[in-house]
User: Which sequence fits this backbone?
């Protein structure tokens, strides 16, 4: 905590406003500096729990970097998720920690039913991160998750719809079969007369049917 205080800056706190991150509980430290400090500290589950309980933004970011995924419980994930109050801590927790726990897929399904904006964002940020980091699962879990995406696309709250869109796009880039299924989902959403699902579908279609994604999937097949 002394390190966090010493390395914060007003300039850093002021800059957070540009990214819709509240700065009232922040020190103003870059993510890069936090990652370097996490490397110096090393994995430490007890430290992560203590850092989270401080209720300070960078302390919680640091907690996600030093925690040990195999020691994270489902109850801890739910407890931390209820504390989420901005998109940055949601995405960092999902990409740096939660997607490496054995509870990740169960939490995607559970949190997708939440009415809380940041809990629901966590469901789709976690699904998005699993498309990148899950090297074990085949296509089936992601195919089933497309139904969650399709339902989630009706949520017009900014931080939810952005995560839903990213989850759909990321799913469609994982394999040729998932690309076809994600495009079909995106096309259905794009025909909606409601603004939120229409936006999600249109933006996903633009990328998933593009030449760069086709080249990427072709290269994967060759490998």
Assistant:
């Amino acid at each position: 905590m002394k390190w966090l205080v010493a390395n914060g800056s007003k300039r850093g706190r002021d800059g957070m406003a540009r990214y819709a991150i509240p700065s009232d509980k922040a020190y103003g430290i870059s993510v890069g500096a936090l990652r370097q400090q996490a490397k110096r500290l090393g994995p430490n589950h007890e430290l992560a729990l203590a850092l989270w309980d401080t209720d300070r933004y960078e302390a919680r970011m640091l907690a996600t970097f030093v925690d040990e995924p195999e020691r994270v419980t489902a109850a801890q994930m739910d407890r931390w998720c209820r504390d989420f109050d901005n998109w940055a801590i949601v995405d960092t927790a999902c990409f740096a920690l939660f997607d490496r726990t054995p509870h990740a897929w169960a939490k995607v399904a559970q949190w997708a039913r939440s009415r809380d904006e940041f809990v629901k964002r966590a469901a789709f940020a976690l699904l998005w991160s699993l498309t990148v980091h899950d090297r074990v699962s085949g296509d089936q879990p992601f195919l089933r998750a497309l139904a969650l995406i399709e339902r989630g696309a009706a949520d017009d709250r900014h931080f939810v719809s952005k995560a839903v869109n990213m989850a759909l796009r990321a799913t469609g880039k994982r394999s040729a079969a998932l690309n076809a299924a994600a495009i079909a989902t995106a096309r259905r959403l794009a025909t909606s007369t409601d603004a939120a699902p229409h936006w999600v579908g249109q933006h996903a279609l633009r990328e998933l049917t593009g030449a760069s994604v086709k080249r990427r999937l072709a290269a994967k097949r060759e490998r």
